[in-house]
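Follow-up to my post from last week.
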Amino acid sequence: MTTPPAAFRLSGVDVQLGGKPVLQDLSLEIGAGEHVALVGPSGAGKTTLLRAFTGVIGPRKGYVEVDGVRLDQLKPEELRSLRSQIGFVHQDHSLVPNLRVSQNVVAGRLGQRGFLSALRSMMRTKKEDLQEVHQILERVGIGEKLFQRTDSLSGGQQQRVALARALYQQPTCLLADEPVASVDPARARSLIRLMVELAKEDGWTLVVSLHNLNLARDFFPRVLGLRHGKVAYDGPPSALCEEQIHDLYHLEETAFGEGR
Amino acid sequence: MARAADFAGLGGKESSHRVRVLTGILAAGILAFLGLGLDGSGLLSKGDGAVLVREFFVAALQPALDYESGGYLPADAPPFLLKVAKGLWGTLVYAIAAISLSFVFGMLLGVLASESFWATRGKAWGVVRWSIRISLTAMRSIHELLWALLLLAALGLSPAAAVLAIFIPYTGTLAKVFSEMLDESDPRPSYALSQIGASQSRVFLFARLPRTLPDIAAYTFYRFECAVRSSAVLGFFGFTTVGLYLKQSFENLHYHEVWTYLYALILVVLVLEAWSAQLRRRFVV
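User reply:
Got it. Predicted complex:
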């Protein structure tokens, strides 16, 4: 093989949740280092797709490859080790609210450390580790929050902590599932900008599901539109015409009204 | 239209069920009253009772600061207020000993009795969980006063008997409540950690457990207050808590002294409550 394997490759993937088809015969490829925005109406399968990328949800048919390795052929420990290399930012409530910011960030390496070293890092973080955490928090713009209780931070700041936790993993990829859905618009924009900048600096593959098409347009060279569990659009945002946008969100306007 | 009718039918079924349950509860209440012959006449005290009650409540306005005259007072008796303090101290010591033991075992058994701890382990382990749950139920279905009676017979009037009498039912209660708190805590932080490769035991230890600790601490403080009351009551059996002195004063009809003990006990509970509220506000794991 001359070309490096794709960061993520899906081949004919079918996923059902509670008996309902969520992803249907889905095949796609995301190259290493690519930045992709995942758009589409609620219920289109964006979250499921992101979870399938790390094998948290297994397909009924087809298979998922990460860096050329098929997830269904990995042992549980190998799968965990692979996940520990992939950062994941959730919509919200992914941090332990009554821990300090530093502890939530340190938890990023729980999948990489031995048990005792994990315990030690959480209970009594070493000075070097704290310095590293502090530097990461500086990079995401909240260095001064190091020792604060996490739930004393605003929603946008907590998402920066989640991002810092992902950074602390030293990942190769960052997946983010509607990371700005609970953040006000102005801060949402700066958070997405930060993610893209960090991805460029550290050379990550970045896949972010977004509800807001403008953010997808402004920051991502590739937009992947999902509808009914299938790829409805795949290409640069510039080629996305009004009709396609309407198609992508059509379902939501008619069946769900305003949507989430 | 058909759907609306379906919903109406469903609603009707639901509410008639509710009516039946409520009627059942009401009937049980009425039957219990009739069975005990509670018709209100029992509330009127007979003979000297009224005088005693009046005397008792009037004494509430003047709690004693020194021994009341009458009754036997040994020559080496400590000053009255010192005796009150001694009683309170004894009460606290028994309660602290019992609740600390209960907390340790309650945590251990609470984790083992929780569903989330065994979540990814084999079904066979369910046997362990259920046998623990059943033992916990047995521990707490016997009240601490009954445990005290049993243990007094077995161990005599030793401090161990009193501590065990509180420890056993309290451990059962703490463990049960802890296990439920663990199972009901927000799963999303745990989910996020397993998403990035943390094993289930680590997820439990670093997300679920710390997430639940403030609730666990708050509930333990509440049970500590209860333990103080239980410890006080155990004095009636002769353990040197405030209950012992209270009982003696009551038997001597020294109601002013009784009220001093009662007020002191209330004060202790209030102080504990203020302290625990303050700790909870500042609690960071």
